[in-house]
């Protein structure tokens, strides 16, 4: 049977391997097919893109009869020559100087760049692209720097007809380049620079530091020359007398070039073109712009340049420099700073921006002398002076203020998370202090103080749960736990002064409005006192579970541990001037009382169990060594002295000795707790234990009393209990005059008299029986006396 099972198992394993192999072959075939399909799709996309560009050109020709090429070609040629002069020292690139048409033959998908004859490649090379998160290698990118565009391509697969495949293109005005210095030798890459493109950044790495420097120099020079060329072309277009207000620019998204329409187009040609399109595309008539023959000359192209017809506030602001223009970049800068966790920069930006916005919205600003034209233009409309600042309405400034407030809320939430999660992340005190200071600068001083205390609570909880291990002796563990708690309280007090009270007080002192530093210090003191007492309450709850509810510690060990904990609390109360000791006692007083009642119940049960097994044998029956030890204990307890030890010591029973020892240990334990609320509980437990002992004496059997030897032992132990044990412990408890103690003594004396009464009655019965037996003898012997 076992052989068949093995054969079936081996056959199933071989079939499974075969099936996995076949599935793997199918997966490889599917991957190849997907790769081929992807290449085909790219080719189709390039063809459609080229056809779309041709159709757009034909449409323009059919409407306007002519397309004027880019007027900036000559100017751009001048810029190219200047860039080439700057890049003479750079290493020669493989495809430097080729046109966009030739680039489209190398890069798959680059046909969108064809259409501008002046566009050509300045420089190209291979760069390693890295991940911005963990700096891992992503791919090897081929970067082409054109006269007006940055092209990033990837190396194509072996089956493609193009050596490169287009990944992304960026206009030279739409990105920035920054150095990426290595901050950590183990993680941060060397020879890297960052391409800053909203909303994400890209990281590239070169082979050597000199290559990185050359790339940064090249990109900065190309971007600068491109901007200068654009500004030069714009000034020429503005001063050109042939360009009227009816001329406009069209941005061809496919060819990525700026081409100008003819300066003059007759109304008849436009109407004819509109009719031709309407008849050709009847379903799209609603999408075409209606033509009004009467107002045609007054209509203007919606794509006109902003420098030709300036009517918006944004255009007006761009025509002059203002000291408040930087405010409009603050929301984006805040998003970047918060995402990069640069909280210090974000806080400084918010504080500075809010101060400027408050001055603008309240009208408490002084305009610079350079804006004389603006002031003169505003002086013509005096009713609007207070409603506009830097050609922007008050509503725009209010919207900007709301955006910055939204960023401030995001920053506040990030700082709150920084403080709350600092304990879990093992955050350093410096980072916590920085977060507290930044919240204080944002006007959240009270919130910063509360979150700091939350952080310290988590640190203490982690120290008590994970920092102290329960191993070996329970008393040692409890002592370490108490030391950890009180040491953390002391450390919190020090860090509270250094990280919260002092820095936030300085921030409040630098502000003219708000609460005074003295008031803030008082508020901080109240918060710290309240937090300390709350943490003490939590620690008391943890002690209740460990000492009482778990039943893992004896009553004496619990009392000894409580004494050590109270000593630590008294010392810290003296250092911090916070009544930690009283709070801890108040938190544990009910638990002590419950533990004392439980211990009293155990003592009563022990008395009853000993009474069931009582044989009324004295200590004299024990070996000499044990006798000496018990007598020494009784002398140490103060129950016997050197004069009474010989008379009473050896005549006591083991039950009486155990009763004395348990009562003494119980009273010592309660005294170690040093809780005045336990005085009545201690007296009650003492009386209950002795009442149990009294019940045992009252339930003595007549057989034991009839035996003269046992009867004398019973009487001696009961008299010793009345005359020595009760007065001794009553003096220790200061309850000699207590009514319950006096009632207990009376009950013990009554029990003693009853036992002695039974002894006397027994003696009388024996005497009477003896007399009767004598009379009977005399009658038989006829000898009467």
UniProtKB/TrEMBL annotation:
Domain PH: 120-224
Transport listed as a keyword: yes
Pfam families given in the database record: Exo84_C
PROSITE patterns documented for this protein: PH_DOMAIN
One annotated GO biological process: Golgi to plasma membrane transport
Domain of life the protein comes from: Eukaryota
Example of a GO cellular component annotation carried by this entry: perinuclear region of cytoplasm
Primary localization class, coarse: other
Keyword annotations: Exocytosis, Protein transport, Transport
InterPro entries recorded: Cullin_repeat-like_dom_sf, Exo84, Exo84_C, Exo84_C_1, PH-like_dom_sf, PH_domain
Biased composition (Polar residues): 369-387
Functional note: Component of the exocyst complex involved in the docking of exocytic vesicles with fusion sites on the plasma membrane.
Similarity field: Belongs to the EXO84 family.
This protein's name: Exocyst complex component 8
Organism listed in the record: Schistosoma haematobium
Organism lineage: Eukaryota, Metazoa, Spiralia, Lophotrochozoa, Platyhelminthes
Gene: EXOC8
């Amino acid at each position: 049977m076992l052989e068949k099972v093995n054969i079936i198992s081996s056959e199933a394993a071989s079939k499974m391997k075969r099936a996995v192999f076949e599935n793997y072959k199918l997966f490889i075939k599917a991957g190849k097919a997907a790769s081929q399909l992807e290449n085909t799709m790219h080719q189709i996309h390039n063809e459609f893109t080229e056809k779309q560009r041709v159709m757009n050109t034909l449409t323009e020709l059919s409407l306007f009869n002519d397309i004027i090429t880019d007027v900036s070609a000559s100017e751009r040629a001048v810029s190219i020559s200047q860039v080439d002069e700057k890049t003479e020292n750079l290493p020669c690139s493989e495809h430097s100087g080729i046109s966009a048409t030739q680039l489209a033959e190398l890069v798959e998908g680059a046909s969108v760049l064809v259409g501008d004859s002046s566009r050509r490649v300045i420089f190209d090379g291979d760069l390693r692209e890295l991940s911005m998160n963990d700096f891992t290698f992503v791919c090897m990118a081929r970067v082409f720097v054109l006269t007006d565009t940055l092209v990033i391509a990837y190396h194509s697969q072996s089956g493609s007809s193009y050596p490169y495949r287009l990944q992304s293109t960026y206009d030279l005005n739409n990105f920035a380049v920054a150095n990426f210095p290595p901050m950590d030798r183990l993680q941060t890459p060397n020879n890297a620079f960052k391409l800053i493109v909203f909303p994400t950044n890209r990281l590239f790495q070169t082979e050597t530091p000199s290559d990185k420097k050359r790339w940064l120099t090249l990109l900065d020079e190309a971007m600068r020359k491109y901007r200068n060329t654009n500004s030069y072309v714009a000034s020429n277009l503005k001063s050109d007398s042939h360009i009227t207000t009816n001329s406009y620019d069209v941005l061809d998204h496919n060819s990525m070039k700026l081409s100008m329409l003819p300066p003059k187009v007759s109304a008849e040609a436009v109407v004819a073109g509109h009719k031709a399109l309407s008849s050709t595309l009847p379903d799209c008539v609603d999408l075409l712009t209606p033509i009004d023959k009467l107002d045609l000359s007054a209509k203007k192209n919606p794509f006109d340049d902003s420098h030709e017809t300036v009517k918006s506030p944004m255009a007006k602001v761009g025509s002059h420099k203002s000291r408040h223009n930087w405010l409009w970049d603050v929301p984006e800068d805040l998003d970047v700073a918060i995402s990069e966790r640069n909280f210090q920069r974000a806080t400084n930006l918010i504080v500075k921006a809010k101060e400027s916005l408050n001055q603008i919205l309240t009208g408490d600003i002084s305009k610079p002398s350079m804006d004389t034209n603006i002031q003169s233009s505003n002086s013509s409309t005096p009713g609007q002076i207070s409603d506009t600042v830097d050609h922007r309405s008050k509503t725009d400034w209010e919207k900007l203020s709301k955006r910055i407030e939204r960023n401030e809320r995001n920053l506040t939430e990030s700082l709150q998370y920084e403080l709350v999660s600092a304990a879990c992340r093992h955050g350093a005190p410096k980072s916590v202090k920085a977060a507290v200071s930044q919240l204080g600068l944002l006007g959240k001083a009270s919130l910063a103080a509360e979150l700091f205390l939350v952080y310290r609570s988590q640190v203490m909880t982690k120290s008590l749960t994970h920092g102290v291990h329960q191993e070996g002796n329970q008393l040692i563990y409890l002592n370490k736990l108490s030391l950890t708690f009180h040491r953390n309280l002391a450390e919190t007090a020090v860090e509270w002064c250094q990280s919260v009270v002092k820095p936030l007080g300085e921030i409040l002192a630098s502000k003219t409005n708000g609460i005074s530093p003295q008031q803030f210090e008082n508020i901080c003191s109240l918060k710290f006192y309240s937090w300390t007492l709350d943490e003490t309450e939590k620690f008391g709850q943890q002690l209740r579970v460990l000492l009482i509810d778990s039943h893992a510690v004896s009553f004496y060990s619990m009392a000894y541990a409580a004494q050590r904990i109270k000593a630590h609390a008294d010392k810290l109360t003296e250092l911090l001037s916070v009544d930690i000791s009283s709070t801890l006692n108040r938190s544990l007083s009910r638990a002590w009382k419950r533990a004392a009642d439980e211990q009293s119940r155990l003592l009563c049960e022990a008395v009853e169990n000993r009474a069931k097994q009582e044989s009324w044998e004295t200590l004299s029956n024990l070996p000499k060594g044990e006798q000496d030890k018990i007598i020494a204990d009784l002398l140490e307890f103060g129950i016997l002295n050197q004069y009474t030890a010989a008379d009473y010591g050896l005549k006591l029973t083991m039950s009486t000795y155990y009763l004395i020892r348990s009562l003494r240990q119980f009273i010592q334990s309660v005294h170690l707790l040093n809780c005045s609320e336990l005085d009545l509980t201690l007296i009650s437990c003492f009386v209950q234990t002795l009442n149990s002992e009294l019940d045992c004496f009252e339930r003595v059997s007549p057989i034991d009393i009839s035996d003269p030897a046992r009867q004398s032992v019973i009487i001696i132990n009961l008299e010793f209990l009345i005359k020595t044990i009760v007065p001794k412990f009553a003096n220790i408890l200061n309850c000699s005059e207590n009514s319950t103690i006096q009632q207990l003594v009376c009950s013990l004396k009554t029990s003693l008299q009853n036992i002695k009464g039974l002894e006397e009655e027994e003696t009388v019965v024996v005497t009477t029986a003896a007399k009767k037996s004598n009379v009977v003898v005399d009658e038989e012997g006829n000898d009467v006396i």
